[in-house]
Design goal:
The structure holds two protein chains of two kinds. Chain A is mostly beta strands. Chain A is built from no helices and eleven strands. By secondary structure, chain B is mostly beta strands. Chain B is globular. The relative contact order of chain B is 0.34. The chains are: A mainly beta, B mainly beta.
Chain lengths: ~110, ~110
């Protein structure tokens, strides 16, 4: 099976712009979660989608949003970019997103905000 | 409030010796725990997991121990190899549709 893919891998934007990141989960996986990783902060949970519905949301401002399509692919959008949004954005997929279901991560999108 | 803590930011171990990475958690509702390994410029890779009904799970060179009363888990790597050099993240969740909570990671360096 192909793994989780994320596009683009690298992105440079300027403050005030918006950005859309894409994630294609492993075939058959219906849950997609997004995380932000910054130096020294570990992985911070952004949100999770399951069957096109947002099921969980982390403690991030409303500038961060996402959606999931019927084929389970997901996008996340960040509007009005700030310098502090520079980070590695990781997407993870799992079959159901619950219980002992394991999440598998994509390679991430490195976003730099200038 | 950090619910999952990895108090050692870094660890150096000689090749062939045991590496022990530690993780503490505060939320008593957590009942499923995972370890991920991350190389630079790559996403985290799942290593091993353990359910709260067990106190040990083993997979090849990797063993995870869970001490529920102390709210502590550890990952043992024996023998350590240079390719094990990476950042290791501990994660936890409770059963149900709740997100994984990650620690901040421990950077392991295995010296040849």
């Amino acid at each position: 099976k192909a793994g989780v893919t994320q596009t683009p891998r690298y992105l440079i934007k300027t403050r005030g712009q918006q950005v859309t990141l894409s994630c294609s989960p492993i075939s058959g996986h219906r849950s997609v979660s997004w995380y932000q990783q910054t130096p020294g902060q570990g992985l911070q949970f952004l949100f999770e989608y399951f069957s096109e519905t947002q099921r969980n949301k982390g403690n991030f401002p409303g500038r961060f949003s996402g959606r999931q399509f019927s084929n389970s692919r997901s996008e996340m959008n960040v509007s009005t970019l700030e310098l502090g949004d520079s980070a590695l954005y990781l997407c993870a997929s799992s079959y159901s997103g619950s219980g002992t279901d394991t999440q598998y991560f994509g390679p991430g999108t490195r976003l730099t905000v200038l | 409030d950090q619910q999952v803590k990895q108090n050692s930011p870094s660890l150096s171990v000689q090749e062939g010796r045991i590496s022990i990475l530690n993780c503490d958690y505060t939320n008593s509702m957590f009942d499923y725990f995972l370890w991920y390994k991350k190389y630079p410029a790559e996403g985290p890779t799942f290593l091993i997991s353990i359910s709260s009904i067990k106190d040990k799970n083993e997979d090849g060179r990797f063993t995870v121990f869970l001490n529920k009363s102390a709210k502590h888990l550890s990952l043992h790597i024996v023998p350590s190899q240079p390719g094990d050099s990476a950042v290791y993240f501990c994660a936890a969740r409770n059963s149900g549709n709740t997100p994984l909570v990650f620690g901040k990671g421990t950077r392991l360096s295995v010296i040849a």
